[in-house]
Amino acid sequence: MSIDIRKENLCDHVVREEAKIFESDLRTIKIRRPIANTSQFKLNLNGYNVPQNHPDLGYYFATDESTFLDIELKNIKFNNRRQNDDDFVDITYSTIPRFCPKCFGLRVVIDIKFNNLGKAVVVRDENKLIQDIETMVTTVLGSNPFHTSLGTNLKNLIGQKVFDLRNIRAQMSKEIVDGINKYVNMQDKQIEFQTVTAKETFFKLLNIEAEPTRNDIPSLWNVNITFQNLAGSTLVDEVDVGPLTLDEIIFGKQG
Question: For position 5, what pLDDT does the model report?
C-alpha cells in the first residue's frame, strides 16, 4: 500500500499580519479586501495588540465610499490622530472566498497539515486516488520537473476569451482524458516497484462534467470526474479550476 501527504485542505480565508500604513490624515488605514467578521479582527500597532475600545488608541470601521467594487469595503478609522507616519501596523482578519489571497475563491489550499503529534496528515486508498486525480487535473502540464508529462492545460483554456462554452467543455474533457491516461501509465510502472492496493488503483473513467460557476464570467469552472477504482468503488472528484495564477505564469508552479 502506498500513502501520500494530504495536500488539499479547506481554506480559512484568514489574512494574517498584513502590513498597513496610515493615510495622509494619520487616522485612516485602507483595507483592500472585505472583512467577513469584524469581531475577529486584530490590529497590532508597533508590535502591540490594540483592542478596538482602547481609551487612547481605539478605532472603528468606516465604509469606504471611494471603492469601485461591487461589495462594501471598510476602512479602519482611529479615534485620535497619530503624531507621526512611521507607525508599524499589521492586521489579521477573515475575508470572503473570492477575495482570499490564499485560495483565490477555490475554497481549498494546497498545503501540508499536521496532526496533534506533529506528524503530517496522510491519505490512503480511495482518498489517495482522488487526490492523485485532482493533482493531475490542477497541475499545469510540464510544470512538475519530476513528471513533466503529467498535468493538463485546463488553466490555459480557462484563461482564454470564451465564445463557445460547448467547445471549451470538449477541450477540457480531452485534456482530462489525456491526463488520466498518462496517470494510469505511471501507476502501471509504480506497481512494478511497490504494492498498490485495488482501492488506490484507477480502473475506469465513467463521466466528466464541467460547468462555469458563472456563465457571464466563465473564469472559474466546476469539474466533476466520476470513475471507478480496481476494487469496484465509484468515486467522484469535484474540483474548481481557475485560470493560471501569476506564480504559475512566471515560475510554472504546480496548481
Answer: 47
Instruction: Give me the domains of the chain, ranges plus CATH numbers.
Output: 14-99 (no CATH), 121-251 (3.10.450.40)
Does this model's pTM top 0.70?
Answer: no
Alpha carbon 148 to its chain's center: 22
What are the cell numbers at 76? 479602519
* Helix ranges (DSSP H) in the chain: 125-138, 154-158, 165-191, 246-251
SS3 content of the chain, % helix, strand, coil (to 5): 25, 30, 45
- Ramachandran assignment for 46, one of left (phi > 0), alpha (psi -120 to 50 degrees), beta (any other): left
Residue 61 burial (CB < 10 Å; 0-12/13-18/19+)? middle
203-223 pLDDT, tens per residue? Answer: 999 999 988 876 666 677 889
Let me know: does 103 contact 13? Beta carbons within 8 Å: yes
Q: What is the per-residue pLDDT across 99-150, written as a single tens digit (0 to 9) for each?
A: 888 776 767 665 555 566 666 566 788 988 988 898 888 888 887 777 788 8
Q: How crowded is the C-beta side of 222, counted as CA atoms within 13 Å?
A: 9
Residue with cell 497541475: 139
Q: Which residue has the cell 502506498?
A: 2
Other Cβ atoms closer than 10 A to 190: 14
Determine the residue type at 147: H
pLDDT for the residue numbered 255: 43
Strands, DSSP E only, in the chain? 3-5, 8-10, 14-20, 28-29, 42-45, 48-49, 59-63, 74-78, 89-94, 108-110, 122-124, 202-212, 221-229, 234-241
